Every structure is written in C-alpha cells, then in structure tokens.
Amino acid sequence: MFCLLQFLLLKFPKKSSECPPSDLFSKNEKPTIMDMPHLVMTQILDNIGFLAIQNLRKTCKSFRCFIDDVKPNNDLKKVNIRLGHHYLRVFLIFDNEENGKNGRAVTVKYEEGEGKAEGSCVIYKKDENSEDSKELMKTDGHFLDVFLNDFESIFKNQRSKLIDLGIKIDTFNYSNTYTYLPLSKFQSIFSRCLSTRSKKFKEVIKMTAEEKNRQHVKTANEMMNGIEQILESRTVPLEVENLSLTVFKSSQNFGILRFIKTNLLHGTRAYPKGISEEIENSVLDSIPTCDTFKTLERLQILHYVMTNPISDFLDIPELYIKRESISREDVLIMKQAFLTNSHLKKWKVKSKNRKDNVLIREVLGQSPDNQEKWFFEIPNSAKVLSIYVNYVFDTTFAPMTFDCMQINLCFVFSIFLIYKTLHASVRPSVRLWIFEKLDN
Amino acid sequence: MSSTEQGTSSAAPAEPTTAPESAAAPEVPESFYYVHGKDKVVHKVSAGALQHSALIHGMISNLGYTEEQAKANPFPFENIDGDILQMVVDWCNQHKGKPTPPEDTNLPKQKEKLFDLVLAVNYLEIKELLTYCCKQVAMMVKGKSPEEIREIWMIPTDAEDEAAEKEAKKRAGKEAAGETAAAAGDAK
C-alpha cells in the first residue's frame, strides 16, 4: 500500500517518451503549452482547425516539427486549385463554421508580380465574409514555386479524408496581347517618351498568344509534376472522395492517381489548341497497375481515347470512357462481365467509329425497329442487363455510345410500355422470365 | 503491499453486497474516499464520482479500503494545486452517474489555470474532462495570427528554442559522462 501512495507523490509522468514540441522550456513554475504531454498536445491540435494549424506552424521550429510529425486531424474538406494564365487560385472549404472570424471558405490567389524579369509573386486572400480580396504579401520567386512551397506541408500533412480535390488548368487564351503593365512604379508619359528603351518596353507587353500559351503549358506541366512529387513523398496515399482533374496530358491524370486513393475520378481535358505536339499526345497507353486505381468506384474520362484492353476496367462499377472503336471481343467481354459480376453498375463506352453498330448487331443479334436495345437475364438476380446503342453528337467527337447497365425489372417493364418493343427485342426465354416475375 | 493487507481489505467490500438480499432492497450505502492536493486540504468524494478518474478508480478497486481505512489514508496528490483539485472534485461530483454533455462552459478561462487543470486531468486520467479542456485550449488560438498565438500560448521563438536545445544537449552530455564514469567505477 505504501508503494502505491509513494507512487502518487511522484511528479507528473510523461505519457509518452516523445515530448510535445519540447519540454525544454519548463523552467517556469507555471506550466506552459510546451509542458503538455504528447497525447494531450495531439488532442489539442486535433481540435484546432486547419487555419490555426497553419498559423501555429509559423510560430516556431518545434511546433512545425511536431505538426509535421503528428499530422493532426483538421476540418479541411474541399480543395480546388485552378491554374490560370499568370496566376493560381486555391479555394479551401472547411467542414464547420468554427473557423473563427475566417468563415467557412478561404480563397488564396498567387499572382505573377509585375516588373521583375526574375519573377515575383503577390498573394491575395479572400474570406467568405469579405467581398474583395486583400493583398496578403509580396514575395520573390515564381508564383508556382510559392504555391508549391506553401502547399507542400498541407498535402503532406493531410490525414483526414477530403470530400473534393479539384485541379483545373485553364484552356488557352487567344488574345494577342499580354495586358499587364510590366513596370511596377508609375511613370509619367514624358518619362516614357524620353526613355530610350521604349521600343523594348513595347515588345515586353506585346507578348503573342502563342508565347503566352507556351508559358502556360510549361507552368501547368511544372505544377502537375510538383504536386505529383509532393504526393509521392507521402507515406500513405491521400484519401479523396471525388477527384476532378482538368489537365493537358492524359498521363497527368494517372500520374497523380497513383498517389491518391479516390472513389471517383473525373478527368477532363484542357484543350491546348495551337500547339500541335500537345494534340498528338492524347492517347492513354498505359493503365497504372496501382492499388488506388482498383478501388475506384467511378471513372469518367471522356476527352482522351483509352486504348487499353477493356478487361483493365473490370474492377470499376461505373465507367465512362472513349475508344477509337469497339471490337467484337470488347462487346463479349462487357456482356459477360455484367452477367457474372454484380458489382458492375453502369458503363458508357463512347466510340469514334459510327460503323461499330454493325459489329454489335452481329454479336448481340438483330434488334428490330432500329431500337438498338438488348436485354439479358442476369442469373440469380432480380436485375436485368440492358444494352443499348446511342448516336449523339457531343463535344468528345465520339458519335456512338455503347451503354451497359444493370436495371431493375420494373424499369424494363416501363420501357416495354413506352417503346412496345419488348416482345420483339427480348429473347423468348427472358420474356417469359420477366412476365413470371411481374406476375409474382 | 503485503498479501495479508490485501486479503483483509478485499474481504471488507463484500459485506454490503450480501446485505440487500436480507432487507427489502435497501439502498447500498455509498462509499466515500478522501483526496488531498498540495495544500493538504482533504476532499471527501464518493466512489461514484471518482469513477470518472481511471487512475483513482483503478486504485480503489485494487485497494478495497473500508470507510475507516479510507478516512485514515487520503490519496495524496502532491503535484496538484489545491484549487485545481477542488475544480476536478467539483466536476466529478457534478457529473456523477450522468451522461457527459458535448460541451462544458464552466472551465477556467485563465490559461495558467487551464494548463494546470489539463495536466492534472491527464494525470488522473479523466477522459471526458480532458476532452473539454483540450477543446478549450484549442479555442484560445482559433482565428489568431502566428504572433498572437505565440503570445497567448507563450511559445518561445526559434532563437530561444535553439539556445534551450544547446543547453539541453550540454546537460545530456554531462549526464552521459557522469553515467559512464559511474559505470567505470562500478567495473573497477
């Protein structure tokens, strides 16, 4: 008993051998934040919120190291990054309203500074409550480098799952001139007239659209490489519910996907018209064999032609892709996959070749009245496989769509009522089975 | 702790459990324990209230004190200030046998007291109160700039940090040298 009471007389034990930022400052009699045990400090940081954590990282090296080590949970839910011409804007949206005076959303804009050949950056910040952006600071360096430097720790330390991560690169700009004034200081008209460098000055502001777009592509590629490198340095993939990418190269979609575990990938193409070599590079030849790809619940990439074998996508329940053409094997594989795998829900495969319908009819049988719909019974299931072919002109320049989906029986019945083609297009055995089910 | 002591003490709490069966379900008398902090002021707390503290609850169940033994041997918490221990005891009494609310607004606002309370609560392993305290500490710096955070939480600057690190290294070096010298002495 004595031992137990003696134990109580001892000093506060540390809960962990790792001390929070440091226990080197506990000379004062009164405890400070630096005296908090590791687990307590972790619990405090879990409640502090994203913005306060960013500010706390700036206070001292000890806290910076501690935060980078512990990676506390935060309330950041959505990140949308948009790269424009000579600027980059980031929208951050938080989970709750307990972000102090800053509200639920914050926008940060990194803009190319004026007047310096080497590059400078102006950072603006806009809270949800305020109408205008406020200039936060000016700094040296390219605006992209400043952004990557700021977001390196954010992407590395993000432990909790994000609902949305969007990266969007603006398409090309066709205006002929670069509109900003290259000199930061005001110059009088006289001084400009007297200046011997006036010719050079004009050359600087009259940047051609081609040159401007070339710079934009370079910045976009550097940004995607930079983000990819940051994500690669994480020990575990970043978890995201919905990932949306609008990039120039198809490889950039999948380069980033290797390090992000997402349920949904929506990939769109930012059209780089005017630079021929970029247009040619639009065919995705390799599907990464990474685990993050296999856990996808929905993949939607309609602006790139996917040349991979269709069997590469069999793990993905919802698929929207574009192909040069649909082969006989593709049709058979898709039909068989839907009949045997209950996890497959809906696939939409666009084809650039309108004549593929002949081949599809050969494989699936003729459908009368030009209603290119087929229904197949799924064994041991109340659902029916519905396949139909659509001919629609859309922005992806793929006139034909081959749709496979599992539908409920009542939906088949409604189709029957609307089109009155069920008797003709459904095989007799399936038709009998449908009526049996409906009778029950 | 001797085995005989444990035996007698563990037999003691068995008495009240048999009593209710004979009477027409009378209420079991609540047992009380005694704690004191640095100021030696003894606080009488019920076993129900002390259940919030995993540390004390574990000790009570191991010791099996009788009422007299508990009175004679108050638990000494020499490292907890009297007023802080009073706060903890009050909180435990208030929340005895009740579900804990999502927020507690009765926590101290002064940072020194709050930090003291956090350390005491962490030591006593009162999980719910620690959660409230951590939220309260976090709220202190929400929406504040780095300079304001440094001021509120009394965070040393990097320069002070480096100086302290050097000092700690020196101290560690001296201690290591002392240990090796002692080990060498033992070997001889």
Automatic annotation (TrEMBL), chain A:
Gene Ontology biological process terms in this record: innate immune response
Record's InterPro entries?
DUF38/FTH_CAE_spp, F-box_dom, FB224
Instruction: Answer yes or no on keyword Cytoplasm.
Output: no
Taxonomic superkingdom: Eukaryota
List, for all copies, the residue spans of the domain called F-box. Answer: 30-79
Q: Which residues form the signal peptide?
A: 1-17
Looking up PROSITE patterns in the UniProt record yields: FBOX (PS50181)
Keywords recorded for this protein, A-Z: Signal
Does the keyword field hold Transcription regulation?
A: no
User: What's the protein called, per UniProt?
Assistant: F-box domain-containing protein
Which species is listed as the source?
Answer: Caenorhabditis nigoni
Q: Output the lineage of the source organism.
A: Eukaryota, Metazoa, Ecdysozoa, Nematoda, Chromadorea
From TrEMBL, chain B:
Cite the SKP1 component dimerisation domain residue spans from the record: 127-170
What UniProt keywords are attached to this protein's entry? Ubl conjugation pathway
Q: Pfam families per the record?
A: Skp1, Skp1_POZ
Region feature Disordered, mapped onto this chain: 1-25, 160-188
Biological-process GO terms, alphabetical: protein ubiquitination; ubiquitin-dependent protein catabolic process
Source organism's superkingdom? Eukaryota
Pathway, according to UniProt? Protein modification; protein ubiquitination
Biased region (Basic and acidic residues) positions are 165-177
Gene3D superfamilies found in the cross-reference section: Potassium Channel Kv1.1, Chain A
Q: For the SKP1 component POZ domain, which residue ranges apply?
A: 38-96
The protein's matches in InterPro entries, at most eight in alphabetical order, are given as: SKP1, SKP1-like, SKP1-like_dim_sf, SKP1/BTB/POZ_sf, Skp1_comp_dimer, Skp1_comp_POZ
Q: Which SMART domains match?
A: Skp1
Q: Where is the composition biased (Low complexity)?
A: 8-25, 178-188
| Role | Probable essential component of SCF (SKP1-CUL1-F-box protein) E3 ubiquitin-protein ligase complexes, which mediate the ubiquitination and subsequent proteasomal degradation of target proteins. Regulates cell proliferation during embryonic and larval development.
Q: Write out the similarity annotation.
A: Belongs to the SKP1 family.
For this protein, the record's PANTHER family field holds: SKP1 (PTHR11165)
Query: Per its record, how is this protein called by name?
Result: Skp1-related protein
Query: Which species does the entry assign this protein to?
Result: Caenorhabditis nigoni
- Tell me the name of the encoding gene: Cnig_chr_III.g8742
